[in-house]
Amino acid sequence: MAPPTLPHSSLIPSPPPNSVKELTDAASLRSVPPQYATRNPDNTIGIEPIIQEEIPTVDFSLLTEGTPEQRSQVVHHLGKACEEWGFFMVVNHGIPERLREAMLDSMKEFFDQMEEEKGEYAGKHVTDPIRYGTSFNLTVEDVRYWRDYLKVFVHPVFYSPAKPPSFREISKEYTACTRAMGMELLRGIWESLGLEENDMTKALDLHSCFHLLGGNIYPPCPQPELATGLPAHSDYGLLTILLQNGVNGLQVKHSGNWVRVEPLPNSFLVNIGDHMEIVSNGRYKSVLHRAEVNSQSTRMSITSAVAPSLDTIVEPASQLVSDEHPVMFRGMRFGEFLELQQANRLKEKSILDFIRLHAEW
Ligand SMILES: O=C(O)CCC(=O)C(=O)O
Ligand SMILES: [Fe+2]
């Protein structure tokens, strides 16, 4: 990939910044440093079109408070959204707007701290319960992505950074609400596969489910056409519930095209993760998504990944395996999958492909 043309002063070697925030706060940048130039806008070969399309919407209130007919309709709709998109918007979820705003504000306050303060959590390993960093995994990447992150384990054991002071209480409430929503969605999704709810809780040990709260910040970028917020990847969990700060940038892959996501006000975005693809024996596939950056506004997203317990060996549900649909994946302990995903380059669905036994049907 040809590097972009840079002004002479940018060629003086300097230590790489600790974070994109540090890089962009320090000076008014006119161009992106070479290691962040992950795209070549002149190379149009292989670039897929980006389109606008309506994303499925799920009315959560009908799942929890609807009549039996309404519930079965919404379960059917949910199943279709999982099968055709692996991605949907959730409306009427009942999580107060003040809590969503407070979570975004508190996450912003975390990123606004001095680098030394955040550096306390500069985790080395995926099993560190609080991990602050930049890009995806600097030890295996030779490029940098235009995002900083915070990842916090919030279940089965709840952790929180000590600062900002509001973080603990807000993230506790926020994660309890999103986990409850995630469990309800999982019940509906499981039902849409014709499976018993109890089987799911047992098979995936959901009482001890692994829940990770993530924060992403994508500061304004002087050359957004050269940089990438996050490259195409799937998430490892069962479901990811995403909230953004009103600045768009997420794209999902649908029927071979990239679709720009413009969420409805007050909605959450939900995507299917690799472990749903595994347990459903490939019926509901994890969706590729990526984040682009822009030159105007700081984008932030908060992710809640709900996953099996770390010690569960996840394999396809036996009820979904038949002569016609042979077993698609070998079983793997969820914790091991997580370590593999986090220790390698972020590249599409490469970790899922590692345990795949057959080509997709
Ligand atoms: O910021 C976004 O919209 C996407 C974030 C994401 O895909 C992730 O954290 O895995
Ligand atoms: Fe993701």
From TrEMBL:
GO terms for molecular function: metal ion binding; oxidoreductase activity. Coiled coil: none annotated. GO terms for cellular component: cytoplasm; nucleus. It holds the Pfam family 2OG-FeII_Oxy. It is found in: Cytoplasm; Nucleus. This is Protein DMR6-LIKE OXYGENASE 2. Signal peptide: none annotated. Residues 1-20 are annotated as: Disordered. Belongs to the iron/ascorbate-dependent oxidoreductase family. The gene is LOC105058466.
